[in-house]
């Protein structure tokens, strides 16, 4: 297979796919064609920024972070798979550029939005149903997790989804997806049973471990590169036990203990008790100064006075002066994730950057030192500034669960720690400065990890920054990239989802 790929790629087939360049049709003309195509429908499905449609257009253009907002020429709101198929077929035939949006939680402008082109907003694909015989949940690709969790809890089950319930299912699931259940069950994407996808020619197919198997694997990490996914069928998890989630703050003086116990959790703790889950984070702001914190969960009965052993050091004062707060106390995943979506409220400017390392106490200190050093007084003085630096372990059991479910495109062969950096600020005029800061910290940290011999090449797609466009899928490794390229040639030979969908993380060569 590898040699075939080399031959294909060597022959310039990929380049030829890209060289198939007609000028793009003007977006205004594309919107008129689309309007005509759906003219007969009872509900309007194409919205432009005209006085008559300004209210709908505005609400459809709202993103979690206003830093990601663009102004599409028109917005298309399909209500079923056939609508999506007709539209995509039209875009392919007429050479119209477009973008695909599910929950709109991407941090990057143009990933789920477009300026000169059509935005497909999937929010009308909001079916949710549960098949109790097979234990499978079928969810439309425009849902947000809050509705999914709510509907499934009525049946006593849940699924691997966002820790913040306002996220969309489409971007989250195709990019990986870290869930509170990941230590036990792998990435959320590993828990997809099948997808319904609209290909460039408008064909609707189902991919799973049994049909279109290679495509199915490539979609787990394939983002928007193969088609518009209209439906996900997900494996479910029993939700009869109570669910606990907590956020704990620690003063800067506990730094050494915090890092040392975080290291322990990253190197065995998450495997020792897969009902537990922790993200370690730190923040800096002008007013709040420096603080350590964690966001964690336990998917069973949990008593703060007598916690599960892997969580004990974070509650009992071993890491000094914990200040715990519960997002959900013996409650449900819906309660916990709804509260986080209020805490992480929409409406603030953000940027993002990510890389991964192999766990090492000294390196953790070095990385945090770089982040603190680059967080200058000048930045801290900008209105609304706060910066967060987070560590998320991926352990043996997480990886074993992924492999047992058929594998994905990520190419992770041993435990690692994903790291991400996330500043927030108020003014659009500070965007460039904040993005440059994010990139500077990331590049310096990657260099330090390489110097320490602890750099892990993997980068989580869902946390990729706008200037990491070409390095995310590349980081999945040569073998996975080749598989993804071969599947592109088979399922999207004209590279519609690269050429006509300019936004997002793309497969190298497309
Ligand atoms: C506050 C906050 C909390 C977060 N928490 C978590 C977390 O707990 N775990 C985690 O893993 N990530 C988390 N993320 C990251 C999140 O997973 C990504 O932002 C993800 O892209 C959100 O999904 P979405 O559907 O809202 O994305 P969108 O912004 O709608 O889309 C993101 C990308 O996916 C593509 N896409 C979306 N739907 C489809 C589809 N149906 N078919 C083809 N392509 C599609 C889009 O074209 C776009 O390029 C968080 C982000 C934020 C802002
Ligand atoms: C939603 O579910 C209903 C009832 O099962 C079905 O008729 C309809 O086609 C579904 N819509 C989509 C978009 O899948
Ligand atoms: C959860 O319930 C148990 C008893 O069943 C109790 O001991 C514990 O304190 C509760 N946890 C929280 C966080 O309220």
TrEMBL record:
Residues 1-19 form the signal peptide. Belongs to the oxygen-dependent FAD-linked oxidoreductase family. It comes from the Eukaryota. Keywords: FAD, Flavoprotein, Oxidoreductase, Signal. This is FAD-binding PCMH-type domain-containing protein. It holds the Pfam family FAD_binding_4. InterPro entries: FAD-bd_PCMH, FAD-bd_PCMH-like_sf, FAD-bd_PCMH_sub2, FAD-linked_Oxidoreductase, Oxid_FAD_bind_N. The lineage of its organism: Eukaryota, Fungi, Dikarya, Ascomycota, Pezizomycotina.
